[in-house]
């Protein structure tokens, strides 16, 4: 990376004591830096973004999020507005943003993730501007908004006064800005702004949100552009590995590989649902057994899970068909649902290989509607229903209330992990220790499933040592035979 | 169809299937309003041929044997008619406008949806927990009033809050309604913006595993306050009374409602009504319950809290009964498919006709024209020297579509174009 950040130097000389430090990241830095610095900067920023993500997944409101986030940002991505640290803080902020922008431009999913967290960070920083910091920020970046004249405000004062959440300034005296509703999308989604004829009346205290939405729009465009330059940057032998690794630091959405566990058959699923499925998949399985149908997103969530659990396409067709045809004809099933199942395996339409949904998606994106059973029970069930469901598991009362407590604290994934731990306790059988491997449990339903199956296999082996021994011998024999035939093959080939 | 229709004199079409391949063939050959449909979907676009909005629009067809064919497209009404008469689709779904002709979806890199109307889908089967007259796919005039509630609330918010003007409401052919918002701003909305709008609209949430049905906070947002003003009279007329859903007309029903009150109060009223319940009308009961609601003061004593009803209770009650329940998945994404207006519903044979939102309460889904009725009407007037359309009761729906929706939209396009031209002229200085 090349030469000097001219913008910030210019700004520093204009107002040496008070710099506007929050950046819109409009110009990439051009300067030299070491590879080590490159990586440290990127990883530090990533830690911040991941903290934001974790807090959001727990459903923290903006205010709570701010309090939790502040110390993390202060440590890893400080932005001093004055003093000797100011230039180097700004440099790190800018450089790390542009590195991650590039690394995360790879796919739609990564872009979306990055965009969401960056906007939250940006919002956080705006909210920490003190005094006239925000006004100066607007001035410096040339952001202008149309102020609502007092007479127009007074005409709407009853409606305006109904909007809660603007920091103790009564509507009669507050300053409002009028923006096209498209710029106030976030506020609209939370019903935190008054709308009239396509315009949002935004109180000054909420103007941040409008600036964030402009930031989002411009970053979204930049990310699309960045994806075009990623290939060139990644081809550089020094940067390539760093860029790819940065992205791997993330998401915990590791695709579960299922090499060391056998596939499953439709006949096993009932038993496996009780024994090894996390709550979310159990709910879908029981609903399917009870209603003999699942709505679209339920089929999608459960079908992809089963696919990743090792159910072949033919078996999945057979499995769903057996249930669905209890309430419809075979013909109807094959016309309306079979396509979808083949699609799931990449055999129809655009032939994409779909990966199973991880907890992130289930918690954030998959809220069920009426008649639907998908999503994450810890997140989407209310306490009473969750308690009722847990009471039917193998957990004792104390364990249940612990899991419930975690869900109440909005630690949904931890609740799920605790559930796993209680259901798969360390134990010693016939002198053999059986311990579950917790890797990925609480991050992906398939990790839960796989860990549970391995645990039960180990348990079974410990309980039946003679059986295990026989199996082991058989395997050894098989390998020997294979080696033998391989040797023979080589001989023949020669 | 109700038994009544069978008794109507002259209802010679009433017996027999209302939908079959022959009827469909007749409909596509002689009645489907291709011209109006294409004028609408062209959105006044100037680009010729394959560049136009119409040509880049995806249609998905479901054929006789439930075979799906997606990414169908055409550039004018004549081609549309050719496609329909050739394929005889049982279902026609409208998708998005893509960045290129949808037919090329496999060969074009970066194939993506560019625009699409903002659509809402409201289905009576989502009201099964509150309606008592029908369940599932069945509908009657009583539960249709939930659609009245939905249409009134959505209309007011779309027009007054968002400033949308070009909105058309369509009967979905069986148990619900579709709303198409066609203003340019609406068509260009990103998925994020659609999601936000849906959230702005949704109040009733929850399902089998979430008891809480509405989540409101005081004071009510102006749009919800307006919704309450619209809904409360409808709630009184159609939900609480014996002639409606009977929520306050029998002890078994009102008991469930009283359970939502603070326990002490609910119990007292329950006892009181057990004895004297028949002395008061449902309306009087509702007025009495509303009278118990008091707005919460910040310093309210605890004791008082237990013996009073929070003000939000009345809003929650009305909203959980009749606030619109949108099928969110349909509205959230640009490329979600939705049944086309003027398609016929294969299960009922009824045509998805537009209706006047102002008269939604008198719209009767059980008398909407069916394919068989249309065939019968064509037959009855086979010698008349008028357009086929004008021989049938579909004419009324098509004319309404033109007069109330299409023509105003086209006039607005004309105005916009004039403004643009004037602006351009002003810039050049030659008026």
From TrEMBL, chain A:
The protein, known as: DNA primase large subunit
Cofactor binding remark: Binds 1 [4Fe-4S] cluster.
Family that this chain belongs to: Belongs to the eukaryotic-type primase large subunit family.
Residue positions binding [4Fe-4S] cluster: 280, 359, 376, 416
Biased segments, Basic and acidic residues type: 464-477
Top-level taxon in the UniProt lineage: Eukaryota
Domain called DNA primase large subunit C-terminal: residue spans: 271-449
Alphabetical list of InterPro entries matching this protein: DNA_primase_C (IPR058560), DNA_primase_lsu_euk (IPR016558), DNA_primase_lsu_euk/arc (IPR007238)
GO biological process: DNA replication initiation; DNA replication, synthesis of primer
Pfam family, one: DNA_primase_lrg_N
Gene3D superfamilies xrefs: 1.20.930.80
Function statement: DNA primase is the polymerase that synthesizes small RNA primers for the Okazaki fragments made during discontinuous DNA replication.
CDD domains: PriL_PriS_Eukaryotic
Assigned keywords, A-Z: 4Fe-4S, DNA replication, DNA-binding, Iron, Iron-sulfur, Metal-binding, Primosome
This protein's record includes keyword NADP: no
Membrane-spanning intervals of the chain: none
Any one Gene Ontology molecular-function term assigned to this protein's record: DNA binding
UniProtKB/TrEMBL annotation, chain B:
UniProt signal peptide: none
GO MF entry, a single one: metal ion binding
A biological process from GO: DNA replication, synthesis of primer
EC number, as in UniProt: 2.7.7.-
Keyword Nucleotidyltransferase: yes
Domain of life where this protein originates: Eukaryota
Record keyword Nucleotidyltransferase present: yes
Pfam families: DNA_primase_S (PF01896)
Listed CDD domains: AE_Prim_S (cd04860)
Listed GO CC annotations: alpha DNA polymerase:primase complex
Xref: InterPro entries: DNA_primase_S, DNA_primase_ssu_euk/arc
Coiled coil start-end: none
Keywords: DNA replication, DNA-directed RNA polymerase, Metal-binding, Nucleotidyltransferase, Primosome, Transcription, Transferase, Zinc
Cited PANTHER family: DNA PRIMASE SMALL SUBUNIT (PTHR10536)
Similarity annotation: Belongs to the eukaryotic-type primase small subunit family.
Protein name: DNA primase
Gene source species: Pelagomonas calceolata
